[in-house]
Design a protein that fits this description.
Elements: E1 2-5, E2 12-13, H1 15-26, H2 42-47, H3 50-55, E3 65-66, H4 70-77, E4 82-87, H5 92-106, E5 111-113, E6 126-129, H6 132-142, E7 145-149, H7 156-159, E8 165-166, E9 172-174, H8 177-185, E10 196-197
Parallel strand pairs: 1-4, 1-6, 4-5, 6-7, 7-9
Antiparallel strand pairs: 2-3, 8-10
Length: 199
Amino acid sequence: MTVFLDYDNTLCDLTTPVCEEINISLGLTLECSNKDIKHYGYLQNEYGNFVNDILHSPEIYKRVVPFNGAVDFVNEIKKDNKVVIITSCLNEELYNAKKDHIEEYFGDIPSIMSSEKYKYLSKQDILIDDYLEHVLNHFFYNKGSAILFNYNENFPYVSTHKYNLKYFDKVNYATSYSEVIKRIDDASLSVSTTCSLSN
């Protein structure tokens, strides 16, 4: 079995340095933080499209660090599974920065850089991601299993997703790496594809 791991905000904290850069760039006295991000696109809506320039800048990865326990988590699941990091990448400079970052912290591990993660997965694969759309795409397109991950419940944009889903009991939701390991080992991880967004 292959476990595909999202990188940003699943294994590494991207939003803290992004928020710090926003605060520096705009000279904010009321600083933004992870807890302020209520939905995807929130930072762009609140502070402008220049946020995308920060997100896609290779320089930001000089300040990105793995979450506590992330390295041990990856090493643990590698014992019994093939592990591939799958992450967004929109330009060559960002590709090189992410590749170097992955190697620095996680060693020589296979990686795929794409904005359409579900295309690379099959029914036998598991996806672990903080982005609901990627989780649902894997359900619907591949009829596979996925875990919606919210590290220590630090990210409101992930937590609120569960209240927007019908049949949330069908969606695997985890807030710690130990929970993820337990769910990967659980034979009942297979997920129904009847999940759908509510109005």
